[in-house]
């Protein structure tokens, strides 16, 4: 009985350790997107070539277009200027 508990504890610790070290997949933008239908803009951007995209959208009532994030780069938001406090007038 004690041996079974030890094995289960060891297995649990190993699984927990494995889950803790998993990192999310890196997002990568590809140059071509399947657009239309249920896809929000810019669409499903997982295609390296126009031909891959065309083969995927065939018969799905979708179309292929360039990925704007890949083509033009993401626009970085401009920092808002800091407001200076107005001086308080004496009464």
Structural account:
The protein is α+β, with helices and mostly antiparallel strands. The protein has a domain at 26-71. It has three helices and three strands; from the N terminus they run H-E-E-H-E-H. The protein has helices at residues 2-20, 50-57, 68-72, and strands spanning 32-35, 44-47, 63-66. Strands 2-1-3 form a three-stranded antiparallel sheet.
Give the overall silhouette: flat
Distance between the termini: 84 Å
Query: Which percent range describes the beta-strand content?
Result: 5-15%
Main sheet properties: 3 strands, antiparallel
Question: In order across it, which strands form the biggest sheet?
Answer: 2-1-3
Overall mean pLDDT score?
76
Number of helices: 3
Poorly predicted ranges: none
**What's the number of extended β-strand segments?**
3
By helix and strand content, what is the structural category?
A: alpha+beta
Reading the helices and strands in chain order gives: HEEHEH
In helices, the fraction of residues equals: 25-40%
Radius of gyration equals 26 Å
In a few lines, what is going on in this structure?
Helix content is 35%, strand content 13%.
